Amino acid sequence: MTPTLRMDAHQVEPGADTIDLLGLVAQFELQSFARLAADSAAAPDLEQRLRLSRLAAAAVTRRDRVLGRIAELGGDPLQAVAQFDGVLDDFDARTAPSSWWERLLTTYVGYGVADDFCRIAAAGLDAESRELVVELLRDSEHAELAVAALGAAGSDDEVLVSRLALWGRRLVGEALGVVQALLVSRPGLVRLVEQGSAEADASAKLFGELTAQHTRRMGRLGLTA
Amino acid sequence: MTPTLRMDAHQVEPGADTIDLLGLVAQFELQSFARLAADSAAAPDLEQRLRLSRLAAAAVTRRDRVLGRIAELGGDPLQAVAQFDGVLDDFDARTAPSSWWERLLTTYVGYGVADDFCRIAAAGLDAESRELVVELLRDSEHAELAVAALGAAGSDDEVLVSRLALWGRRLVGEALGVVQALLVSRPGLVRLVEQGSAEADASAKLFGELTAQHTRRMGRLGLTA
Lengths: 225, 225
Description:
mainly alpha, Ferritin, 10 helices, 0% strand
Protein backbone atom coordinates (compact mmCIF):
# COMPACT_ATOMS: atom_id res chain seq x y z
CA MET A 1 0.00 0.00 0.00
CA THR A 2 1.46 3.37 -1.00
CA PRO A 3 1.29 6.29 1.40
CA THR A 4 -0.82 8.33 -1.07
CA LEU A 5 -3.66 5.86 -0.69
CA ARG A 6 -3.94 6.55 3.00
CA MET A 7 -7.03 8.63 3.77
CA ASP A 8 -6.72 11.57 6.09
CA ALA A 9 -10.17 11.86 7.64
CA HIS A 10 -10.30 15.60 7.15
CA GLN A 11 -8.83 15.85 3.67
CA VAL A 12 -10.86 13.29 1.72
CA GLU A 13 -11.94 14.18 -1.80
CA PRO A 14 -15.70 14.33 -2.27
CA GLY A 15 -16.86 11.26 -4.18
CA ALA A 16 -19.76 8.87 -4.48
CA ASP A 17 -19.84 8.22 -0.71
CA THR A 18 -20.17 11.94 -0.08
CA ILE A 19 -23.04 12.29 -2.52
CA ASP A 20 -24.71 9.30 -0.83
CA LEU A 21 -24.51 10.80 2.65
CA LEU A 22 -25.66 14.23 1.45
CA GLY A 23 -28.54 12.51 -0.35
CA LEU A 24 -29.47 10.79 2.91
CA VAL A 25 -29.36 14.07 4.84
CA ALA A 26 -31.57 15.70 2.19
CA GLN A 27 -34.00 12.75 2.29
CA PHE A 28 -34.23 13.01 6.09
CA GLU A 29 -34.94 16.75 5.76
CA LEU A 30 -37.64 16.05 3.18
CA GLN A 31 -39.23 13.51 5.53
CA SER A 32 -38.78 15.92 8.39
CA PHE A 33 -40.70 18.59 6.46
CA ALA A 34 -43.60 16.18 5.84
CA ARG A 35 -43.61 14.98 9.43
CA LEU A 36 -43.48 18.48 10.96
CA ALA A 37 -46.23 19.65 8.59
CA ALA A 38 -48.41 16.72 9.71
CA ASP A 39 -47.52 17.49 13.35
CA SER A 40 -48.53 21.11 12.73
CA ALA A 41 -51.91 20.01 11.35
CA ALA A 42 -52.43 17.78 14.41
CA ALA A 43 -51.23 20.29 17.03
CA PRO A 44 -53.69 20.96 19.85
CA ASP A 45 -53.38 24.75 19.74
CA LEU A 46 -52.74 27.51 17.20
CA GLU A 47 -49.43 28.63 18.68
CA GLN A 48 -47.88 25.16 18.36
CA ARG A 49 -49.41 24.87 14.90
CA LEU A 50 -47.65 28.06 13.82
CA ARG A 51 -44.33 27.05 15.42
CA LEU A 52 -44.34 23.59 13.86
CA SER A 53 -45.14 25.04 10.42
CA ARG A 54 -42.08 27.32 10.78
CA LEU A 55 -39.92 24.31 11.66
CA ALA A 56 -41.28 22.50 8.59
CA ALA A 57 -40.37 25.49 6.42
CA ALA A 58 -36.87 25.55 7.93
CA ALA A 59 -36.43 21.87 6.97
CA VAL A 60 -37.16 22.84 3.34
CA THR A 61 -34.44 25.49 3.46
CA ARG A 62 -31.95 23.04 4.98
CA ARG A 63 -32.78 20.38 2.42
CA ASP A 64 -32.32 22.81 -0.45
CA ARG A 65 -28.91 23.87 0.87
CA VAL A 66 -27.83 20.21 0.89
CA LEU A 67 -29.20 19.76 -2.63
CA GLY A 68 -27.18 22.81 -3.67
CA ARG A 69 -24.02 21.25 -2.23
CA ILE A 70 -24.69 17.99 -4.11
CA ALA A 71 -24.97 19.97 -7.35
CA GLU A 72 -21.74 21.87 -6.54
CA LEU A 73 -19.95 18.53 -6.18
CA GLY A 74 -21.19 17.45 -9.60
CA GLY A 75 -23.84 15.06 -8.27
CA ASP A 76 -27.46 14.76 -9.36
CA PRO A 77 -29.52 16.12 -6.43
CA LEU A 78 -32.77 14.38 -7.40
CA GLN A 79 -31.07 11.02 -7.85
CA ALA A 80 -29.11 11.40 -4.62
CA VAL A 81 -32.32 11.95 -2.65
CA ALA A 82 -34.42 9.43 -4.59
CA GLN A 83 -32.10 6.52 -3.74
CA PHE A 84 -33.26 6.86 -0.10
CA ASP A 85 -36.99 7.04 -0.90
CA GLY A 86 -38.92 5.09 1.69
CA VAL A 87 -35.99 4.92 4.14
CA LEU A 88 -38.37 5.68 7.03
CA ASP A 89 -41.41 3.71 5.81
CA ASP A 90 -40.79 0.81 8.20
CA PHE A 91 -40.06 3.18 11.07
CA ASP A 92 -43.29 5.11 10.37
CA ALA A 93 -45.39 1.95 10.01
CA ARG A 94 -44.12 0.59 13.32
CA THR A 95 -44.37 3.81 15.31
CA ALA A 96 -47.77 5.26 14.45
CA PRO A 97 -48.38 7.54 17.45
CA SER A 98 -51.68 7.19 19.31
CA SER A 99 -51.65 10.63 20.99
CA TRP A 100 -50.26 14.12 20.50
CA TRP A 101 -47.55 13.45 23.10
CA GLU A 102 -46.43 10.23 21.42
CA ARG A 103 -46.35 12.10 18.10
CA LEU A 104 -44.16 14.85 19.55
CA LEU A 105 -41.83 12.27 21.12
CA THR A 106 -41.65 10.30 17.86
CA THR A 107 -40.32 13.32 15.97
CA TYR A 108 -37.97 14.23 18.84
CA VAL A 109 -36.45 10.75 19.19
CA GLY A 110 -36.58 9.72 15.51
CA TYR A 111 -34.91 12.84 14.17
CA GLY A 112 -32.56 12.94 17.14
CA VAL A 113 -31.11 9.57 16.12
CA ALA A 114 -31.14 10.44 12.40
CA ASP A 115 -29.33 13.73 13.01
CA ASP A 116 -26.77 12.12 15.32
CA PHE A 117 -26.01 9.43 12.76
CA CYS A 118 -25.61 11.97 9.94
CA ARG A 119 -23.34 14.13 12.10
CA ILE A 120 -21.13 11.18 12.99
CA ALA A 121 -20.88 9.99 9.36
CA ALA A 122 -20.26 13.60 8.25
CA ALA A 123 -16.92 13.51 10.09
CA GLY A 124 -15.69 11.50 7.09
CA LEU A 125 -16.63 14.20 4.55
CA ASP A 126 -14.56 17.00 2.97
CA ALA A 127 -14.39 20.07 5.20
CA GLU A 128 -16.99 22.16 3.37
CA SER A 129 -19.61 19.41 3.19
CA ARG A 130 -18.93 18.43 6.81
CA GLU A 131 -19.33 21.98 8.07
CA LEU A 132 -22.58 22.38 6.12
CA VAL A 133 -24.09 19.21 7.63
CA VAL A 134 -22.96 20.07 11.15
CA GLU A 135 -24.29 23.63 10.84
CA LEU A 136 -27.67 22.51 9.49
CA LEU A 137 -28.22 19.74 12.02
CA ARG A 138 -27.42 21.96 14.98
CA ASP A 139 -30.94 23.38 14.86
CA SER A 140 -32.48 22.60 18.24
CA GLU A 141 -35.75 24.48 18.03
CA HIS A 142 -37.85 21.35 17.76
CA ALA A 143 -36.06 19.85 20.74
CA GLU A 144 -36.87 22.96 22.78
CA LEU A 145 -40.53 22.82 21.77
CA ALA A 146 -40.71 19.09 22.61
CA VAL A 147 -38.94 19.52 25.95
CA ALA A 148 -41.21 22.42 26.98
CA ALA A 149 -44.45 20.74 25.88
CA LEU A 150 -43.66 17.22 27.13
CA GLY A 151 -42.12 18.52 30.35
CA ALA A 152 -45.24 20.55 31.13
CA ALA A 153 -47.57 17.66 30.26
CA GLY A 154 -45.65 15.10 32.31
CA SER A 155 -45.13 17.27 35.39
CA ASP A 156 -48.40 16.19 37.00
CA ASP A 157 -49.15 12.94 35.20
CA GLU A 158 -47.18 9.89 36.32
CA VAL A 159 -49.10 7.56 34.00
CA LEU A 160 -48.18 9.69 30.97
CA VAL A 161 -44.54 9.79 32.08
CA SER A 162 -44.22 6.00 32.22
CA ARG A 163 -46.10 5.53 28.96
CA LEU A 164 -43.78 8.00 27.24
CA ALA A 165 -40.67 6.35 28.70
CA LEU A 166 -41.90 3.05 27.24
CA TRP A 167 -42.70 4.73 23.91
CA GLY A 168 -39.21 6.26 23.84
CA ARG A 169 -37.60 2.82 24.26
CA ARG A 170 -39.66 1.45 21.41
CA LEU A 171 -38.78 4.46 19.23
CA VAL A 172 -35.04 4.23 19.79
CA GLY A 173 -35.09 0.52 19.00
CA GLU A 174 -36.81 1.19 15.69
CA ALA A 175 -34.53 4.15 14.91
CA LEU A 176 -31.38 2.13 15.55
CA GLY A 177 -32.88 -0.53 13.28
CA VAL A 178 -33.05 2.06 10.48
CA VAL A 179 -29.36 2.92 11.00
CA GLN A 180 -28.46 -0.78 11.07
CA ALA A 181 -30.31 -1.40 7.78
CA LEU A 182 -28.59 1.62 6.20
CA LEU A 183 -25.13 0.40 7.18
CA VAL A 184 -25.83 -3.08 5.82
CA SER A 185 -27.12 -1.83 2.48
CA ARG A 186 -24.73 1.13 2.06
CA PRO A 187 -21.05 0.30 2.50
CA GLY A 188 -20.25 3.91 1.57
CA LEU A 189 -21.81 5.09 4.81
CA VAL A 190 -19.68 2.60 6.77
CA ARG A 191 -16.57 3.97 5.03
CA LEU A 192 -17.49 7.53 6.01
CA VAL A 193 -18.05 6.53 9.65
CA GLU A 194 -14.68 4.75 9.71
CA GLN A 195 -12.86 7.60 7.92
CA GLY A 196 -14.30 10.18 10.29
CA SER A 197 -13.18 8.38 13.40
CA ALA A 198 -9.74 8.03 14.98
CA GLU A 199 -10.77 4.65 16.34
CA ALA A 200 -10.30 1.29 14.65
CA ASP A 201 -13.79 -0.13 15.23
CA ALA A 202 -15.77 3.05 14.63
CA SER A 203 -18.87 1.30 13.27
CA ALA A 204 -19.09 -0.90 16.35
CA LYS A 205 -18.82 2.13 18.61
CA LEU A 206 -21.41 4.06 16.58
CA PHE A 207 -24.33 2.38 18.30
CA GLY A 208 -22.89 3.12 21.72
CA GLU A 209 -22.65 6.78 20.79
CA LEU A 210 -26.19 6.90 19.34
CA THR A 211 -27.58 5.23 22.46
CA ALA A 212 -25.70 7.60 24.76
CA GLN A 213 -27.10 10.62 22.88
CA HIS A 214 -30.59 9.15 23.08
CA THR A 215 -30.23 8.67 26.85
CA ARG A 216 -29.14 12.29 27.20
CA ARG A 217 -32.10 13.38 25.06
CA MET A 218 -34.61 11.42 27.14
CA GLY A 219 -32.98 12.82 30.26
CA ARG A 220 -33.85 16.36 29.09
CA LEU A 221 -37.49 15.25 29.25
CA GLY A 222 -37.06 13.70 32.67
CA LEU A 223 -37.67 10.27 31.12
CA THR A 224 -35.70 7.07 31.70
CA ALA A 225 -34.18 5.82 28.46
CA MET B 1 -73.02 63.84 8.28
CA THR B 2 -69.82 65.88 8.59
CA PRO B 3 -67.22 65.80 5.82
CA THR B 4 -64.58 64.36 8.18
CA LEU B 5 -66.62 61.19 8.50
CA ARG B 6 -66.42 60.52 4.80
CA MET B 7 -64.09 57.61 4.05
CA ASP B 8 -61.57 57.98 1.30
CA ALA B 9 -60.97 54.42 0.12
CA HIS B 10 -57.21 54.88 0.04
CA GLN B 11 -56.74 56.82 3.26
CA VAL B 12 -58.69 54.76 5.78
CA GLU B 13 -57.22 54.33 9.24
CA PRO B 14 -56.43 50.73 10.13
CA GLY B 15 -59.02 49.43 12.58
CA ALA B 16 -60.84 46.30 13.56
CA ASP B 17 -61.94 45.60 9.97
CA THR B 18 -58.32 45.72 8.84
CA ILE B 19 -57.21 43.29 11.54
CA ASP B 20 -60.08 40.99 10.52
CA LEU B 21 -59.06 40.89 6.86
CA LEU B 22 -55.38 40.44 7.70
CA GLY B 23 -56.38 37.63 10.07
CA LEU B 24 -58.31 36.00 7.23
CA VAL B 25 -55.36 36.31 4.84
CA ALA B 26 -53.08 34.76 7.49
CA GLN B 27 -55.58 31.95 8.12
CA PHE B 28 -55.76 31.21 4.38
CA GLU B 29 -51.95 31.09 4.25
CA LEU B 30 -51.88 28.73 7.22
CA GLN B 31 -54.40 26.46 5.49
CA SER B 32 -52.46 26.84 2.26
CA PHE B 33 -49.29 25.63 4.01
CA ALA B 34 -51.10 22.53 5.33
CA ARG B 35 -52.72 21.82 1.97
CA LEU B 36 -49.51 22.24 -0.04
CA ALA B 37 -47.63 20.06 2.45
CA ALA B 38 -50.27 17.35 2.03
CA ASP B 39 -50.11 17.80 -1.75
CA SER B 40 -46.32 17.42 -1.54
CA ALA B 41 -46.68 14.16 0.40
CA ALA B 42 -49.16 12.88 -2.24
CA ALA B 43 -47.22 14.05 -5.31
CA PRO B 44 -46.51 11.33 -7.88
CA ASP B 45 -42.83 12.19 -8.34
CA LEU B 46 -39.94 13.59 -6.34
CA GLU B 47 -39.55 16.77 -8.36
CA GLN B 48 -43.16 17.83 -7.74
CA ARG B 49 -42.77 16.80 -4.11
CA LEU B 50 -39.81 19.15 -3.73
CA ARG B 51 -41.52 22.01 -5.56
CA LEU B 52 -44.71 21.72 -3.53
CA SER B 53 -42.74 21.65 -0.27
CA ARG B 54 -41.05 24.91 -1.32
CA LEU B 55 -44.46 26.47 -2.01
CA ALA B 56 -45.63 25.30 1.42
CA ALA B 57 -42.58 26.95 3.02
CA ALA B 58 -43.29 30.17 1.09
CA ALA B 59 -46.84 30.21 2.51
CA VAL B 60 -45.33 30.16 6.02
CA THR B 61 -43.19 33.19 5.19
CA ARG B 62 -46.18 35.05 3.74
CA ARG B 63 -48.33 34.23 6.75
CA ASP B 64 -45.67 35.44 9.15
CA ARG B 65 -45.35 38.75 7.28
CA VAL B 66 -49.10 39.26 7.65
CA LEU B 67 -48.90 38.37 11.36
CA GLY B 68 -46.11 40.94 11.67
CA ARG B 69 -48.33 43.60 10.09
CA ILE B 70 -51.18 42.74 12.49
CA ALA B 71 -48.80 43.23 15.42
CA GLU B 72 -47.55 46.54 13.96
CA LEU B 73 -51.15 47.76 13.86
CA GLY B 74 -51.59 46.88 17.53
CA GLY B 75 -53.67 43.76 16.88
CA ASP B 76 -53.23 40.32 18.45
CA PRO B 77 -51.94 38.08 15.64
CA LEU B 78 -52.99 34.78 17.24
CA GLN B 79 -56.50 36.03 17.96
CA ALA B 80 -56.85 37.53 14.49
CA VAL B 81 -56.03 34.18 12.87
CA ALA B 82 -57.92 32.06 15.40
CA GLN B 83 -61.25 33.77 14.69
CA PHE B 84 -61.17 32.16 11.23
CA ASP B 85 -60.30 28.65 12.44
CA GLY B 86 -62.22 26.11 10.43
CA VAL B 87 -63.17 28.60 7.68
CA LEU B 88 -62.40 25.96 5.02
CA ASP B 89 -63.67 22.88 6.89
CA ASP B 90 -66.92 22.71 4.88
CA PHE B 91 -65.05 23.35 1.64
CA ASP B 92 -62.56 20.57 2.44
CA ALA B 93 -65.26 18.10 3.50
CA ARG B 94 -67.21 18.66 0.29
CA THR B 95 -64.26 18.62 -2.09
CA ALA B 96 -62.17 15.61 -1.03
CA PRO B 97 -60.20 14.91 -4.24
CA SER B 98 -60.24 11.36 -5.61
CA SER B 99 -57.09 11.66 -7.76
CA TRP B 100 -53.85 13.60 -7.96
CA TRP B 101 -55.27 15.77 -10.75
CA GLU B 102 -58.37 16.64 -8.77
CA ARG B 103 -56.16 17.48 -5.80
CA LEU B 104 -54.01 19.81 -7.88
CA LEU B 105 -57.11 21.48 -9.33
CA THR B 106 -58.66 21.84 -5.86
CA THR B 107 -55.71 23.86 -4.61
CA TYR B 108 -55.54 25.89 -7.85
CA VAL B 109 -59.23 26.81 -7.88
CA GLY B 110 -59.77 27.05 -4.11
CA TYR B 111 -56.82 29.35 -3.44
CA GLY B 112 -57.47 31.23 -6.66
CA VAL B 113 -60.87 32.31 -5.36
CA ALA B 114 -59.57 32.94 -1.82
CA ASP B 115 -56.70 35.09 -3.12
CA ASP B 116 -58.98 37.05 -5.48
CA PHE B 117 -61.41 37.75 -2.67
CA CYS B 118 -58.65 38.93 -0.32
CA ARG B 119 -57.16 41.14 -3.04
CA ILE B 120 -60.54 42.77 -3.76
CA ALA B 121 -61.27 43.35 -0.07
CA ALA B 122 -57.71 44.66 0.45
CA ALA B 123 -58.57 47.64 -1.76
CA GLY B 124 -60.36 48.98 1.31
CA LEU B 125 -57.25 48.83 3.53
CA ASP B 126 -54.66 51.48 4.41
CA ALA B 127 -51.96 51.77 1.76
CA GLU B 128 -49.27 49.79 3.58
CA SER B 129 -51.51 46.84 4.47
CA ARG B 130 -53.03 46.84 0.99
CA GLU B 131 -49.65 46.78 -0.72
CA LEU B 132 -48.49 43.95 1.54
CA VAL B 133 -51.55 41.81 0.71
CA VAL B 134 -51.30 42.52 -3.02
CA GLU B 135 -47.58 41.78 -3.05
CA LEU B 136 -47.96 38.51 -1.13
CA LEU B 137 -50.89 37.20 -3.15
CA ARG B 138 -49.21 37.87 -6.49
CA ASP B 139 -47.21 34.64 -6.12
CA SER B 140 -48.17 32.56 -9.14
CA GLU B 141 -45.77 29.65 -8.81
CA HIS B 142 -48.46 27.17 -7.83
CA ALA B 143 -50.59 28.29 -10.78
CA GLU B 144 -47.67 27.65 -13.13
CA LEU B 145 -47.08 24.20 -11.66
CA ALA B 146 -50.80 23.35 -11.92
CA VAL B 147 -51.08 24.66 -15.48
CA ALA B 148 -48.01 22.72 -16.62
CA ALA B 149 -48.99 19.45 -14.91
CA LEU B 150 -52.71 19.53 -15.71
CA GLY B 151 -52.08 20.75 -19.26
CA ALA B 152 -49.69 17.89 -19.92
CA ALA B 153 -52.02 15.31 -18.36
CA GLY B 154 -55.08 16.52 -20.25
CA SER B 155 -53.42 16.90 -23.65
CA ASP B 156 -54.17 13.31 -24.67
CA ASP B 157 -56.99 12.36 -22.34
CA GLU B 158 -60.42 13.70 -23.24
CA VAL B 159 -62.11 11.83 -20.40
CA LEU B 160 -59.81 13.46 -17.85
CA VAL B 161 -60.44 16.88 -19.39
CA SER B 162 -64.21 16.62 -19.03
CA ARG B 163 -63.96 15.17 -15.52
CA LEU B 164 -61.72 18.07 -14.47
CA ALA B 165 -64.02 20.66 -16.07
CA LEU B 166 -66.88 19.19 -14.01
CA TRP B 167 -64.70 19.13 -10.89
CA GLY B 168 -63.76 22.77 -11.47
CA ARG B 169 -67.43 23.79 -11.58
CA ARG B 170 -68.08 22.00 -8.33
CA LEU B 171 -65.02 23.61 -6.72
CA VAL B 172 -65.92 27.15 -7.70
CA GLY B 173 -69.45 26.68 -6.39
CA GLU B 174 -68.10 25.58 -3.03
CA ALA B 175 -65.47 28.34 -2.97
CA LEU B 176 -68.04 31.06 -3.69
CA GLY B 177 -70.12 29.53 -0.89
CA VAL B 178 -67.22 30.13 1.50
CA VAL B 179 -67.02 33.79 0.41
CA GLN B 180 -70.81 34.14 0.76
CA ALA B 181 -70.71 32.71 4.31
CA LEU B 182 -67.84 35.06 5.23
CA LEU B 183 -69.71 38.14 4.00
CA VAL B 184 -72.85 37.16 5.92
CA SER B 185 -70.98 36.54 9.19
CA ARG B 186 -68.42 39.36 8.87
CA PRO B 187 -69.90 42.79 8.11
CA GLY B 188 -66.38 44.24 8.41
CA LEU B 189 -65.36 42.41 5.24
CA VAL B 190 -68.39 43.84 3.41
CA ARG B 191 -67.33 47.34 4.54
CA LEU B 192 -63.82 46.81 3.17
CA VAL B 193 -65.15 45.58 -0.18
CA GLU B 194 -67.44 48.62 -0.41
CA GLN B 195 -64.74 51.08 0.70
CA GLY B 196 -62.27 49.70 -1.80
CA SER B 197 -64.59 50.08 -4.74
CA ALA B 198 -65.70 53.15 -6.65
CA GLU B 199 -69.02 51.46 -7.38
CA ALA B 200 -72.19 51.68 -5.32
CA ASP B 201 -73.06 47.97 -5.23
CA ALA B 202 -69.55 46.58 -4.86
CA SER B 203 -70.58 43.49 -2.89
CA ALA B 204 -73.07 42.50 -5.56
CA LYS B 205 -70.44 42.89 -8.25
CA LEU B 206 -67.89 40.95 -6.22
CA PHE B 207 -69.27 37.59 -7.30
CA GLY B 208 -69.22 38.60 -10.95
CA GLU B 209 -65.55 39.50 -10.59
CA LEU B 210 -64.69 36.27 -8.74
CA THR B 211 -66.49 34.21 -11.40
CA ALA B 212 -64.75 36.05 -14.24
CA GLN B 213 -61.35 35.40 -12.66
CA HIS B 214 -62.24 31.74 -12.20
CA THR B 215 -63.23 31.47 -15.88
CA ARG B 216 -59.91 33.01 -16.89
CA ARG B 217 -58.09 30.59 -14.57
CA MET B 218 -59.86 27.54 -16.01
CA GLY B 219 -59.15 28.88 -19.49
CA ARG B 220 -55.40 28.73 -18.75
CA LEU B 221 -55.90 24.97 -18.28
CA GLY B 222 -57.92 24.69 -21.48
CA LEU B 223 -60.98 23.80 -19.38
CA THR B 224 -64.50 25.18 -19.74
CA ALA B 225 -65.56 26.98 -16.57
